[in-house]
Amino acid sequence: MPIGQPTTLTKELLASVLKEQYEAFLVKDRGVPREILGSLKPVMDSPQITVITGLRRVGKSTLLSQIADTYFKKDYYFVNFEDERLLNFSVKDFDLLYEGLISLYGEKKIFIFDEIQNVPQWERFIRRLYDQGYKFIITGSNASLLSQELGTRLTGRSFRMEVFPFSFREYLRFKEVTLDNSSIFTTAQKGKLLKLVNDYIALGGIPDALKYPELEVHKTLYDDVLYRDIATRYKLDNVKSLQELSLYLISNTSALISFNKIKDLLRLGSVNTVKNYINYLESSWLFFVVNKYAYSVKEQQIAAKKIYSIDTGLTKSVGFSFSPNSGKFMENVVYLELLRRQKNVYYYKTGQEQEVDFFIPKDQLFIQVTKQLTDETKNREVNALVTAAQEQKNPSQLLIITESDKELIESEGFKIQVIPLYEWLLFKPEK
């Protein structure tokens, strides 16, 4: 066959690939059990298509193996569409694939498909077999593509879950650190936890980066997202502008950004270009954009945004900063944990232009994040929280997350809980 010519997908080749993949999947390292695993039984027992999304190398395939062991034993099919031998696999090949699976393993009712977004129109096959009573668990690394397809033929038939880098609790399990269930720590435990949480901020929670610290996992991952998931997929001509924008964002995490200012600073031509590029970066799970809380949708749209990274270890490895900026990294860690707790998150600006880092309307929860509570920072953070609570006119939860301070502050009839980051990450504060 001439060099560069696509490999023809034959029954023999497909059978070989499927058998090799399944056997490798059975012996795959199951890694650290993910916290979400225990809550999935109702979803696995339902006919709903389970859609697992998240950044590359964030542990989706490992979670798949944990789900398979926990809920299905060996009674399933497994196919990984990231395999280069399936590069030219198309929707018309699904019947050939199904035939090959039956010939190898007999008839089964459960399909586990990894990185399904690599197959155009994949949802057609899944919808057909779903209607015949088959169960699907699928993963994908592009939120935009998956949401488009789920919103057409699979609407109302799917349950979507997002996988994030390790939480602090999962990080401790990875490090084989065990803690009792008590929320009261000795002085030695506090010191140990403070070191561990600072290590966690520095290293992040991407499993492979923690497992293989000698390799440039963060850099490789970052480049794969920019070039393979964005530039190639969206057929971008100006890759340099995408690089510059992404570097700007990752070097300014936890900061307010303005689309207009970015357009002028990076000479990107139009605000729409900035919005499109940031949307691509969001859809590929590198960044999250947070809106200002406002009753008016228009005000939310035109106000400055806050930007957060998917992982502080990735930010430290790839971003550029003149200072350690540990307070901003702490804030990023808090934001990611709020997402894990399935919170709808905004930042808040009072009528006096005081900023509160996070506001969760459903819980009426305001959160400030600061490294240390000096006299100056205490006055600023407390005043902003009290003003915000007064504006909302509802009984509110007010929280200041610090590196190591713990106390209860009372101001203007409001109680403000000050709690160390490691404690908040380990235990949800009581209402």
TrEMBL record:
<dbReference type="InterPro" id="IPR003593">
    <property type="entry name" value="AAA+_ATPase"/>
</dbReference>
<dbReference type="InterPro" id="IPR041682">
    <property type="entry name" value="AAA_14"/>
</dbReference>
<dbReference type="InterPro" id="IPR027417">
    <property type="entry name" value="P-loop_NTPase"/>
</dbReference>
<feature type="domain" description="AAA+ ATPase">
    <location>
        <begin position="46"/>
        <end position="168"/>
    </location>
</feature>
<protein>
    <recommendedName>
        <fullName>AAA+ ATPase domain-containing protein</fullName>
    </recommendedName>
</protein>
<dbReference type="InterPro" id="IPR025420">
    <property type="entry name" value="DUF4143"/>
</dbReference>
<dbReference type="Pfam" id="PF13173">
    <property type="entry name" value="AAA_14"/>
</dbReference>
<dbReference type="Pfam" id="PF13635">
    <property type="entry name" value="DUF4143"/>
</dbReference>
